[in-house]
Design a protein that fits this description.
Bound molecules: iron/sulfur cluster
Low-confidence stretches: none
Largest sheet: 12 strands, mixed
Number of helices: 8
Shape: globular
Strand content: 15-25%
Length: about 270
C-alpha cells in the first residue's frame, strides 16, 4: 500500500480521500482498476478516456468469469483495499456514500463481490450509515460473481442513454456486440433499478447524440416500462472546446426530469 496525491494506492486500485460529489454527497471513491487505463465493455463516445484517444482494453472483460488462481492472487489486494477504505473513512465528517467506479468496470475486479461484502462488514463494525454504490454499464451483470456484488450493493447504477438500437450501438459501442434489446432484457432481470441517463449533443453529427426528440420519447417510454427506483439525468462535464460534443442545457435537463416525474418516476437532474 502506498500514498500518492492523498490517494491510497493498493496494487492497481486507488482509494481517494472523501470529497463532495454532486450525485452522491460526501463520498469516498474507490477505483478498482488503474486510473491510467480504461478497461470497460463499452466505448461511449463521451468517455474521457475515449476522448483522450485511449480506447482501452475492453477485451480483457472476456476473461469473465474469473478463474480460481486469478481470484486467489487478487485476494491479498482485496484485504488491502478494505484497509485503505478503513483508513479513508477514519476521522472527519460522516460520509454519505462509498462509490466503486472508474473507467475500469468494478465488476472486472476478480474479488469485487468479496470487497463489497467486506465493506458492508466494515460499515456494520463502525456503526456507519454510508450507502454502498457502484456505477457501470451493467454488461457483466449476468455473470454469477458480478451479480453477487450487485445484490450486496445498496445501489448499482446502470447506464441507459439511448432507446434506439442503432444509436445505442453507434454511440456506446458495446465491445461484445450487445444489442439494446439484450441489454434491456438484462436490466429487466435485475430487480429494483437505479438508472443513470447521460444526455449530450453532437455539433458535427446529430445522428450521434442522445438529445433528439425521437430518442427522448423512446427513452421516456422505456424508463417508464423499467420502473426504476431512481433516475439520475445528467450531461457532459469538462468537454474540450475542440470536441464536437456539447452538454445539454440546465433547463432542458430539468424539463426531461420533470417529464419523468409526471410519468410517475423519481428522477433528479444534475447539470
Ligand atoms: S461506461 Fe463509463 S468507462 Fe465505460 S466507456 Fe462509457 S463512460 Fe467510459
Amino acid at each position: 500500500m502506498s500514498h500518492s496525491n492523498d490517494k491510497i494506492m493498493v496494487g492497481r486500485s486507488e482509494v481517494s480521500p472523501p470529497r463532495i460529489s454532486r450525485f452522491f454527497g460526501r463520498t469516498l471513491f474507490v477505483n478498482l482498476g488503474s486510473a491510467e487505463e480504461k478497461c470497460c465493455t463499452w466505448h461511449c463516445v463521451y468517455c474521457p478516456k475515449e476522448l483522450e484517444g485511449e480506447a482501452g482494453a475492453g477485451e480483457i472483460n472476456k476473461k469473465l468469469p474469473h478463474g480460481d488462481a486469478e481470484r486467489l492472487e487478487a485476494g491479498a489486494d482485496a484485504k488491502q483495499v478494505i484497509a485503505a477504505i478503513r483508513a479513508g473513512v477514519a476521522g472527519g465528517a460522516e460520509l454519505d456514500s462509498i462509490v466503486f467506479t472508474s473507467t475500469t468496470e468494478p465488476t472486472n475486479h476478480p474479488m469485487f463481490a468479496e470487497i463489497v461484502s467486506m465493506t458492508r462488514d466494515l460499515r456494520l463494525t463502525l456503526g456507519a450509515s454510508w450507502l454502498l454504490q457502484s456505477i457501470g454499464p451493467g454488461t457483466q451483470l449476468d455473470e454469477k460473481k458480478a451479480l453477487e456484488a450487485y445484490r450486496l450493493l445498496d445501489r448499482f447504477w446502470v447506464k441507459l442513454d439511448c432507446a434506439i438500437g442503432e444509436l445505442f450501438e453507434s454511440t456506446l459501442k458495446p465491445t461484445h456486440g450487445e444489442t439494446l434489446q439484450g441489454y434491456v432484457a438484462k436490466l429487466r432481470s435485475l430487480g429494483p433499478l437505479y438508472i443513470r441517463v447521460t444526455l449530450w449533443r453532437d455539433l458535427a453529427n446529430k445522428a450521434l447524440q442522445s438529445w433528439t426528440p425521437e430518442n427522448l420519447e423512446k427513452l421516456l417510454a422505456l424508463l417508464v416500462s423499467l420502473n426504476p427506483r431512481l433516475v439520475h439525468v445528467s450531461t457532459l462535464k469538462n468537454i474540450a472546446p475542440t470536441s464536437n460534443l456539447r452538454p445539454v442545457g440546465d433547463e432542458d435537463l430539468d424539463t426531461f426530469a420533470m417529464r419523468l416525474h409526471e410519468a410517475g418516476l423519481d428522477a433528479e437532474a444534475f447539470a
